[in-house]
Every structure is written in structure tokens, then in C-alpha cells.
Task: inverse folding
């Protein structure tokens, strides 16, 4: 169904109202798993945002922008020059309205998308160079906030009338004012949904069930009926009462910190911040110059040299290393942009050596450089035009090709990572297996140490710790809710 709505996105725009109706219809399809009061913000996080028509249409437009900028369509050769001179900002009608709605901007040349994050920092995405998951996360954060800010059960009090007979929940404030800061990603909910097949646990992961109404669904229960009372004697117990207030379930919430706002009380979720920018890498230019200088020195002593490279990433911080064994050179640095993935780090490591080789070839340096790497995916970038980062791959192939054309040939050789034994793998004819694995270990160690140093004390490290704490709290609350549901059902069955 969604492909029918998104196939022409970017060139034909759909009104948001039909898409919202379609979203409700899609969620209704899952009514056997989702109760009627399941909050859409939780349901879409558990299902996956690809099932949200509004998100799918926006994402389709962004993919068209990147694809159009990074790789010319095959039909371009049949177009007049007046058409080819136009940028995607003109050729894709839906692009401008989408960027305006997202509060993003495009650079004058169309190479970059920019936005200002909640910390006031400018974030930059380079089309065709940075990975699409970065852009998808940006868009997901926007939709997180939009749908979260429409969640009535946390934006409004909705507390039942002041009646001491009613088994009500806590009286807590709402979430922070509508701002970029107020958002939930429901990571704990996703974990509990994926890991458990228990009906009660899945309902708890969706912040549903566990109430007078769900436990008596389909029954006409009148006031005063035994099933209308809570374990503590209160009337018509709500979910938040059973979980957070009822003294007869206090042991089931033992160890779970009490909620501080309606988000935690009613959605079992923590408000979290968006991912901050990665630490800057101001020494990148000097790093390339150092690699170039030591490559030159190594090639003066031997016309065939080995260079080992590796990349590492963890918690959104990446680093890569270059090792030239013949001159005892080993150094590492980190990518300076948004793309801090292991694959991008591997590509940057190979790219630094190819760029240095291209620069040296222009000065008449000749010979052979064998790049030793443990990343097959990065190696394949040199052999195919179908890459997840097409413009970066094109640049790498161009440097390698130009260097080879001038007599400085760059070869790629794969070595299994972490001393892994691979049947039928053979070492390079000019190096022993022990040498190749030692060079790879040194490159791996250098990249890992650099990544750890960049992470130390960074905003990303504290952000990751906060996200882990939020996920753990959400999982504890969900487990408690499922246990409370089981006890409540046992109580009702005993009547």
C-alpha cells in the first residue's frame, strides 16, 4: 500500500490529512496485537517508522534528493543543457517545501543539507558522501517529536474527577513544553516487544492493558460489582494506579524509581535528547600530510610497500588508522563529519592512502602500494559504482586510478580480522601470514585507542549513558506493569 503513496514523492505532493487517515488504518490492521488505546507514538516505534505514511513520504523525498544529486539518471543524456544545468532544488518540486517544513536548509550548490540541533550546533549532511542512516535518524527525530507532542494522555491531565472512591494515579506535571527537547524513542519498549511473546508483556510494552477497563473488556460492570474494585478497595482502578499507587502491588514495583512526570507515569518512557555532534577532528589535514610524507620515504627505500589500515566506531564516535611498517609509521585520527560509522572509518582510511598516493604520483613517485585491510565491503567500493556513498566511492576510485596512471599502483589485499582462521585464505606472496596479521592488529589497536580517546569526556559518551539508563528504566517499568496485570487478573479470577 505505501509504495502506491510514495512512488512519486518529490514530484507530486500529498496532503497530510489523507496520510493521517491512512496511518490510522494501518494501525487498525494490527488491532489483534494492539489494544484500542495504544498510543500511536509507541505503536509506530515498535512497528517501525517505515509503516508511517507521513514518515515514508518524507523519507522518499529525501532519498530522491540524494539519489538525484549523487548519481545522474540514465535519461540525463537525452536532456537539453538548459535542463542539466538546474539543481535538484529546482527539479524536485517537493524538496523545497519539505526542507522548509523540517526547518532544514540546503547549501547554495546543493551539496549539503544543514540544520540546527537542540544544542544550537549546526549539523551538516553531505549528499552522496555521508551514509543515508544519518539522514534517516534526523528525519526520525523530527517525527518522534511531532507525534509525541500530539499524545493526549501526556499532554493533558485527563485525571478523573476528584472522587476519593476512584482508584486514580499520581498527580504529576506534563512533559517539558513543546520543544525539540521533549521526545521519546521508546527503546525499552522495542526491546521488551521483541524479546517476549507473553500477551501481558506485549501490552505493557505498548503502554496498554493493566486497568479496570482492559481486564473487564466486553463486560457490563456496574458500580459496586466485585470486579469493579481494585485490590486495595478503590473503584475502577486505572493502569497508573495499579502500577504506581496501589499498596497491594508495591512489591512488584520495588526497585523501579518513581515517575516524575506524566510521560514516565503513563507511557513508561523517559524523555531523551537527540544525539549530539561527534567530536571535531581538526588534525585531519595534518594527518594526510604525514601519511604522504612517510609514504614517500617508504617508497624511496623499496618500490613495493605494504600499508595496513583499519577503522573502528562505538557509540557514535569513529576513528581510523594507517600503518606503514617499513618506516615504522602508525597514526590514527577520526572523521570530522556526521558519518561516524565503522564502514565510513574504513573508507576514510583507504581514502587517505589513495589521496596521498595520487599526490605523490604527480611528483614522479612510482612503485606499488599494497593496502592491507580486513573490510571486504570497503574493498568492494573500488570495484562497483553501486555504493551507499556514491560520491565518496567515486573520489576514492579517481585517486586510485590517477595514481596508477602515473606509475604508482595501489592494490588491495584482504586479511581476516582478529586472527580469524578462514579456509583457503592465503597470505600475500611478498609477506608472511604472521606479518600481515601483526600489521592488521597494530592498525586495529591504533584505531581503537584513538576512538576511545575521542569518546572520553565527549557529549556523545554522556548521551549514550543517558540513553542506556532510560532504556533500562523503561524495561523495569514494563516488566512491573506485566507482573501487576498478572496479579490483577488472578485477583479477579478468584472472585
Result:
Amino acid at each position: 500500500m505505501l509504495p502506491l503513496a510514495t512512488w512519486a514523492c518529490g514530484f507530486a505532493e500529498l496532503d497530510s490529512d489523507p496520510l493521517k487517515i491512512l496511518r490510522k488504518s494501518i494501525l487498525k490492521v494490527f488491532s489483534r496485537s494492539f489494544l484500542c488505546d495504544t498510543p500511536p507514538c509507541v505503536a509506530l516505534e515498535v512497528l517501525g517508522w517505515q509503516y508511517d505514511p507521513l514518515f515514508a513520504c518524507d523519507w522518499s523525498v529525501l532519498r530522491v534528493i540524494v539519489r538525484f544529486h549523487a548519481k545522474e539518471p540514465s535519461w540525463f543524456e537525452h536532456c537539453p543543457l538548459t535542463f542539466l544545468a538546474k539543481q535538484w532544488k529546482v527539479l524536485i518540486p517537493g524538496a523545497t517545501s519539505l526542507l522548509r517544513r523540517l526547518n532544514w536548509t540546503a547549501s547554495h550548490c546543493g551539496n549539503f543539507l544543514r540544520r540546527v540541533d537542540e544544542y544550537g550546533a549546526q549539523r551538516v549532511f553531505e549528499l552522496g558522501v555521508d551514509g543515508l542512516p544519518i539522514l534517516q535518524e534526523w528525519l526520525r527525530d523530527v517525527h518522534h517529536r511531532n507525534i509525541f507532542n500530539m499524545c493526549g494522555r501526556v499532554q493533558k491531565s485527563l485525571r478523573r474527577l476528584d472522587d476519593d472512591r476512584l482508584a486514580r494515579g499520581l498527580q504529576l506535571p506534563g512533559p517539558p513544553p513543546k520543544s525539540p527537547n521533549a521526545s521519546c524513542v521508546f527503546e525499552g519498549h522495542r526491546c521488551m516487544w521483541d524479546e517476549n511473546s507473553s500477551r501481558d508483556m506485549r501490552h505493557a510494552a505498548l503502554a496498554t492493558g493493566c486497568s479496570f477497563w482492559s481486564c473487564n473488556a466486553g463486560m457490563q460492570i456496574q458500580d459496586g460489582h466485585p470486579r469493579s474494585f481494585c485490590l486495595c478497595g478503590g473503584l475502577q482502578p486505572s493502569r497508573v494506579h495499579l502500577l504506581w499507587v496501589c499498596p497491594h502491588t508495591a512489591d512488584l514495583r520495588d526497585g523501579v524509581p518513581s515517575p516524575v512526570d506524566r510521560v514516565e507515569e503513563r507511557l513508561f518512557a523517559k524523555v531523551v535528547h537527540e544525539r549530539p555532534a561527534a567530536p571535531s577532528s581538526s588534525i585531519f589535514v595534518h594527518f594526510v600530510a604525514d601519511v604522504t610524507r612517510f609514504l614517500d620515504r617508504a617508497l624511496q627505500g623499496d618500490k613495493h610497500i605494504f600499508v595496513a589500515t583499519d577503522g573502528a566506531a562505538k557509540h557514535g564516535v569513529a576513528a581510523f588508522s594507517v600503518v606503514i611498517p617499513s618506516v615504522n609509521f602508525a597514526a590514527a585520527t577520526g572523521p570530522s563529519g556526521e558519518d561516524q560509522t565503522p564502514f565510513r572509518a574504513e573508507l576514510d582510511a583507504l581514502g587517505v592512502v589513495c589521496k596521498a598516493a595520487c599526490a605523490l604520483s604527480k611528483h614522479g613517485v612510482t612503485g606499488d602500494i599494497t593496502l592491507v585491510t580486513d573490510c571486504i565491503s570497503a574493498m568492494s567500493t573500488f570495484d562497483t559504482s553501486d555504493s551507499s556513498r556514491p560520491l565518496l566511492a567515486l573520489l576514492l576510485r579517481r585517486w586510485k586510478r590517477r595514481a596508477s596512471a602515473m606509475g604508482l599502483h595501489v592494490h588491495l589485499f584482504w586479511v581476516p580480522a582478529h586472527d580469524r582462521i578462514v579456509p583457503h585464505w592465503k597470505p600475500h606472496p611478498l609477506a608472511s601470514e604472521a606479518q600481515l596479521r601483526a600489521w592488521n592488529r597494530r592498525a586495529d589497536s591504533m584505531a581503537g585507542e584513538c576512538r576511545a580517546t575521542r569518546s572520553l569526556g565527549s557529549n556523545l559518551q554522556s548521551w549514550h549513558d543517558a540513553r542506556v539508563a532510560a532504556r533500562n528504566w523503561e524495561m523495569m517499568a514494563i516488566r512491573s506493569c506485566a507482573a501487576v496485570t498478572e496479579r490483577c487478573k488472578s485477583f479477579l479470577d478468584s472472585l
Remarks:
- The chain has three domains: 2-148, 152-275+461-493, 284-455.
